[in-house]
Amino acid sequence: MSKLPIKNDLGFFEIRLESIGGLGAHLAGKMLAEAGVLGLGLNGAHFSSYGSEKKGTPVKSFVRFSEGELRISSPIERPHIIGVFHEALFKTVDVANGLLPDGVIIVNTSKSVDEIREELNLKSGTVAVVDALNIAVEEKTRVNTAMLGAIFRVAEFLNPEAIKNVIRATFEEKYPHLVDSNIKTFDRGYNEVVFKTFEADQNAVSEFVRQKSAVGYETQPIGGVITNPGNTILKDLSGSRQGFLPEYNADKCINCANCDIACPDLCFVWEEKEDKKGRPQMFLKGIDYQYCKGCLKCVDVCPTGALTTIRETDGYADEHRVPHKFKLASN
Ligand code: SF4
Ligand code: SF4
Question: Is the pLDDT reported for residue 250 higher than 90?
Fold first, then answer.
């Protein structure tokens, strides 16, 4: 009997993890492949593709299983399972691209299955949601093991005991204090994932579109020169946050600018006003959360407690964002 529930034309079962650097998708993919190879006796392959920066940019991690020969190392375009490690990716990456009509997509979110299905415009297949970030914050771990738990729940042929052995082997030598919390995180992802299957309507199945890079070796400017000035204005670093944000309380602020000096991404917004003696002075107005990656260095250096760490809740950053007023040179 086959150990794989379904296979593509080449005999492979394929999983693609869509993530942001720093969330641990590469390690999750590695552990997933190991669990399939060591636990089920499958042949497996795993590799990842990264952006130009290690943290904060999109990452894809690929896992391929086979009962026969496995000599392919191309990116996975038509996966049976997709794991999305951060909802913020929806803004920039077509995360569901290529998912097979009866495939499964698992999203780290606090939203419902129906909301995610609508946002991704999925016609069919199984949609699963798990609040992996909340689990990771509560267990003081990372979202990757919670996502693995959810993946193992929907991919029933994978053996949860095998991945627990891999988690133990991965952490016990260097970080033995993280073994139990990661096993618990895995169990919570496994138990807390919610999923629903939508029947494939043959008329409504989305066409597969091969994704092409906008800039490649044929189309990039000579020398790799960046031709649009001030393009970092468009950056959205919110995807790098892992559940926490700095909160600003103007009443406690003495405008010392320590936070501005410590912040690596120029998040602090200032305005010129008159001080009590009528002299012009710069006053801190707030934080532009579009550029805040949640490193919390600003909280560490604030001498008065005007900046504190809070759990990020849905919509908080949008509601309290104080936007920079940038002007591009060409405007
Ligand atoms: S947490 Fe603070 S220092 Fe870090 S990016 Fe956000 S505003 Fe800047
Ligand atoms: S470090 Fe604290 S007190 Fe100083 S400007 Fe920033 S928020 Fe205000």
Answer: yes
Quote the pTM value. 0.83
Q: How far is the CA of 54 from the centre of ligand 1 (A)?
A: 18
Does any domain span residue 61? yes
Residue 165 CA to ligand 2 center (angstroms) comes to 47
Of all protein residues, whose CA lies closest to atom 4 belonging to ligand 1?
Answer: 295
Six-digit token string for 289: 């959360």
> Hey, whose CA ends up nearest to atom 1 of ligand 2?
302
Asked if residue 16 and residue 160 are part of one domain, the reply reads yes
More confident position, 123 or 209: 123
Is residue 220 one of the residues assigned to a domain? no
Q: What amino acid is encoded at 206 in this protein?
A: S
Which residue has a Cα nearest atom 6 of ligand 1?
292
Cβ atoms 296, 244 nearer than 8 A: yes
Using the 3D structure, point to which of 176, 198, 220 is the last residue of a domain: 198
**Percent of the chain residues past pLDDT 90, beyond the cut:** 62
Whether the CB of 93 sits within 6 Å of ligand 2:
no
Distance CA 202, CA 56 (A): 38
Q: Which domain holds residue 58?
A: 12-198
| Probe target for ligand 1 pocket from 238, 267, 285, 320, with the most ligand atoms within 8 Å of CB | 267
Whether residues 237 and 298 share a domain: the answer is yes
88 vs 324, higher pLDDT: 324
Q: Are 8 and 14 in contact (CB under 8 A)?
A: yes
Would you say 81 and 15 are in contact if contact means Cβ atoms under 8 Å apart? yes
The span from the first CA to the last CA of the chain, in angstroms, equals 66
The pLDDT score that the predictor gives to residue 234 is 83
Residue where a domain stops, chosen among 198, 217, 245 = 198
Structure tokens at 239: 């995807």
Question: Is the same domain home to 134 and 282?
Answer: no
Q: Is the CB of 258 under 6 A from ligand 2?
A: yes
- On the question of pLDDT at 47 being above 60, the answer is yes
Ligand 1 atom nearest to CA at 291: 5
Question: Is 204 domain-assigned?
Answer: no
